[in-house]
Amino acid sequence: MAIKPITGMLRRTFVVDLTIAGVIGFAMGNAFWYGYHMPRTNARDNFYRKLEQERAAEKA
């Protein structure tokens, strides 16, 4: 037999690919969440908090 049989190689590559995809997906998800989403949400919340405080100050 000139060529060695390939055993377990496909499974190992699949597990490695799946692990790498999971790690990259998790990292990109965190980068989006904490790098874009949370700062925008905090800015929006601060804007409405300030607006509400101004409205409350006008009524008082």
UniProtKB/TrEMBL annotation:
It comes from the Eukaryota. InterPro entries: Cyt_c_oxidase_su7a_fun (IPR014368). Keywords: Membrane, Mitochondrion, Mitochondrion inner membrane, Oxidoreductase, Transmembrane, Transmembrane helix. Its main location: mitochondrion. Pathway: Energy metabolism; oxidative phosphorylation. The chain crosses the membrane at residues 14-36. GO terms for molecular function: cytochrome-c oxidase activity; oxidoreductase activity. It is found in: Mitochondrion inner membrane. It is a single-pass membrane protein. GO terms for cellular component: mitochondrial inner membrane. GO terms for biological process: mitochondrial electron transport, cytochrome c to oxygen. Belongs to the fungal cytochrome c oxidase subunit 7a family. Component of the cytochrome c oxidase, the last enzyme in the mitochondrial electron transport chain which drives oxidative phosphorylation. This is Cytochrome c oxidase subunit 9, mitochondrial. It comes from Cephalotrichum gorgonifer.
